[in-house]
Amino acid sequence: MQTLVVVGHDKIDRSSSHQFFISAGQEMEQVDYLLLDRWLKKSEPLWKQREHLLTYDRIIFQFQLHWYQAPYVMKEWIDYIFQLDDDFSNFKKALRQKELGLVVIAGSPKNQYQPGGSQGRSIYDLLAPYELLARHFEMVYLPAFVVHEFHLLGQQKQQQLLWRYNSYVTTGNQGRFSKYQRFIIHQLDSLAPEQFDASPEDLVLLDMLIETMTDRADDLEQLKGLVEEW
């Protein structure tokens, strides 16, 4: 599946979090980015911008929370692309069963957005309009990928976050262990020898690791099937 990530920020080059995610996602062949700080709504006709959007199977809105909502540039793009016009019904039909996901970056701690927290609402309460948007267009809504306090993450935590982000934008999955495991196996299996300095012995060990992980993933899926039947 091909993914388009629409990044809603008016100065993306000044955002360390967006730069971090974009640099990672651009390494994925099936992921493209639309950077809204470079977008002019009249640069191309609406029908052409919609036509480009419809070439993707998965659409992800990526933005930082700004006063509990998406930045203005994201709202402006959504209002323009999804506006009512003479071709709206055809556009709506073409969006049916495509996936809509969210990557949301929040500067506040996670515990502020939960029952008893200082914000009084969960992140998912704030993002409900996007779920309704997906429902209106009969799209498949993906649970939001939410990042809290990116600026406080150490290098190891950032690398773990990177794997989860790549899994989300390429598969739509962020939580199910079996799908995440398959994603990692696919990434390892797609590595070309020239991409890293490895001896023939190391390559053999890598093949053994991939084979072992694949066998365990198969066993896990079989076990899950037995549990569901039980």
TrEMBL record:
Any one Gene Ontology molecular-function term assigned to this protein's record: NAD(P)H dehydrogenase (quinone) activity
Pfam families: Flavodoxin_2
Residues of the Flavodoxin-like fold domain: 1-159
Key words, A-Z: Oxidoreductase
SUPFAM superfamilies, sorted: Flavoproteins
Gene3D superfamilies, sorted: 3.40.50.360
Record protein name field: Flavodoxin-like fold domain-containing protein
Organism of origin: Dolosicoccus paucivorans
Lineage per the UniProt record: Bacteria, Bacillati, Bacillota, Bacilli, Lactobacillales
